[in-house]
Specification:
The protein is of the alpha/beta class. The chain has a single domain (3-150, 158-164), classed as Diaminopimelate Epimerase, Chain A, domain 1, CATH 3.10.310. It has 7 helices and 4 strands.
Amino acid sequence: MGIRRITRHLVQHHWRAKVVFTPRVLDRVEQAIKRSETMHSGQVRFVVEGALDGAALFRNQPARERALDVFSHLRIWDTAHNNGVLIYLLLADRDVEIVADRGIDAKVGAAGWEKICRDMEADFRAGRFEHGVIKGIEAVSRELARHFPPRGPHPNELPDKPVVM
């Protein structure tokens, strides 16, 4: 566990997510998710966490492990076609993780998700958070549309509203 990481998480903490992801930005992200879900029968969630705290921080929990916890907690795995996808941003680390349910993950694979994450992180390093998130949602949606095209009306199984933790 590095002192730099601990300091970054303690200093930036949760206020940073609220500064970067204002209500207006969150609304645009929500609208991007709504638009994307008209192109496929999958489900997309976006979660931004400002920083880790408590046990997670002092255990040096990696962003991937935290994203798996969030995926489970939000029950993103609980979709009819096993095609829920979480885009998780740990802002203090500027680390993006995509966790996909088994129905879509088997089709896209780790390398496909990793490319989307790295593209988003490049935008974040340049300070383009909103652009990076929306671009990531669009990239995830292209994968979902290719493997889970819309087939008639389908229910919105998960909320489209982004989560700020």
